[in-house]
């Protein structure tokens, strides 16, 4: 199938992207391709049968001056949270609701000249947003480079896809660096990774210090000039992964009072048959606020389609206030709830236990219970406990 002009290629790619984002099924997408003359009815019928048999998503090739291969995918996570809490024994309001935790639509394009691009859109929040947007070129196995908005190499659990995590939410120690102080997670800039041989691999990032996709500079053009640096060295063999990540961020968005942040994490992950063990340690230098240290220990074991999971995490800061409702996602917040008291917090412990049921590779049911206790040096105690449940569909 040949498309003789770049305009035709662009128009059909846009139509495909729109279909992938909003169609109710692959059938609707195939019908549009037939209407556009990209596929015949017989070809569409054949592709539908292949999709049903392989359950691998949808891809199409178009030939013009360059060959382009497009692949569409999505992730839906419907969730229920019920979290209660207390401050010094006085109950706080309870979180109790259904919502979409994630609703992702993605498209990846590969050109035969070696370039590729990927965009993932998140429509679960109130505002349309990017989860990932980048393009890149793979020179060889030792150097695969990208420019764009994606996660920096800091934190094993943070850089693992939520679709593959056995726990419903990431640990409190992880969320401190990714969510409370906006140190790690997604930044815009230059990223690269590659294999070094003998089981070793690396990843590096030179990015904006402020989190975000970078199209807007959050006000005046000169207001966010700080850059951040991240690096990873990892070794893998026989189900064992050992790694060290480090980063330096001047944190221009003032999450830590304008102080520079330097942090590292070391981790060990071991997988054998159904067993999955993870241990991760974090350390951060927060400048005038002193140090912060934390760790998370996680164990899960698949028994057929069932998977029990247990995790314990701990975080302690010298002088920086721990925000409990930020570290325990969707915990109660507001003037009479956890956030106010948490602004004087210095230490938090969390235990999560749950079970997952893998109906298929594409459908997973998850349920878990989390108990968290935080305390500051003045003796203020904040407690959170509650139940979460999630259904996940991938396509």
Automatic annotation (TrEMBL):
Signal peptide, first to last residue: 1-23
Domain of life: Bacteria
Keyword Signal included in the entry's annotation: yes
Keywords tagged on the record: Signal
Pfam families: Porin_O_P
Protein name: Porin
Organism: Coraliomargarita algicola
Lineage of the organism: Bacteria, Pseudomonadati, Verrucomicrobiota, Opitutia, Puniceicoccales
């Amino acid at each position: 199938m040949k498309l003789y002009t770049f305009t035709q290629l662009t128009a059909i790619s846009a139509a495909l992207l729109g279909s992938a984002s909003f169609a109710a099924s692959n059938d609707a997408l195939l019908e549009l391709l037939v209407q556009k003359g990209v596929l015949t009815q017989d070809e569409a019928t054949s592709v539908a049968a292949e999709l049903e048999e392989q359950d691998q998503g949808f891809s199409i090739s178009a030939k013009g001056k360059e060959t382009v291969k497009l692949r569409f995918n999505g992730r839906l996570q419907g969730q229920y949270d019920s979290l209660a809490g207390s401050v010094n024994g006085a109950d706080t309001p309870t979180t109790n609701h259904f919502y979409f935790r994630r609703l992702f639509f993605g498209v990846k394009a590969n050109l035969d000249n070696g370039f590729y691009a990927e965009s993932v859109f998140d429509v679960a929040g109130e505002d349309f947003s990017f989860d990932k947007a980048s393009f890149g070129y793979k020179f060889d196995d030792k150097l695969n480079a990208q420019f764009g908005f994606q996660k920096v190499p800091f934190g094993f659990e943070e850089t693992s896809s939520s679709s593959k995590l056995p726990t419903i939410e990431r640990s409190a120690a992880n969320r401190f660096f990714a969510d409370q102080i906006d140190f790690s997670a997604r930044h815009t800039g230059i990223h690269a990774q590659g294999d070094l041989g003998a089981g070793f691999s690396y990843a590096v990032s030179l990015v904006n210090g402020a989190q975000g996709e970078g199209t807007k500079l959050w006000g005046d053009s000169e207001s966010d000039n700080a850059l951040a640096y991240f690096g990873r060295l990892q070794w893998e063999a026989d189900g064992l992964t050992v790694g060290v990540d480090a980063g330096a961020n001047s944190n221009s968005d003032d999450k830590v009072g304008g102080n520079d942040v330097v942090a590292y994490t070391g981790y060990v992950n071991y997988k054998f048959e159904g067993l999955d063990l993870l241990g991760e340690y974090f350390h951060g230098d927060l400048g005038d606020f002193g140090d912060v240290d934390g760790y998370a220990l996680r164990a899960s074991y698949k028994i057929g389609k069932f998977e029990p999971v247990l995790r314990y995490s701990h975080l302690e800061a010298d002088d920086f206030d721990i925000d409990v409702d930020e570290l325990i996602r969707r915990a109660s917040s507001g003037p009479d709830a956890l956030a106010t008291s948490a602004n004087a917090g210095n230490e938090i412990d969390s235990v999560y236990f749950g079970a997952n049921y893998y109906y298929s590779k594409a459908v997973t049911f998850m349920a878990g219970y989390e108990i968290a206790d935080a305390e500051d040096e003045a003796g203020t105690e904040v407690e959170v406990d509650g139940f979460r449940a999630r259904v996940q569909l991938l396509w």
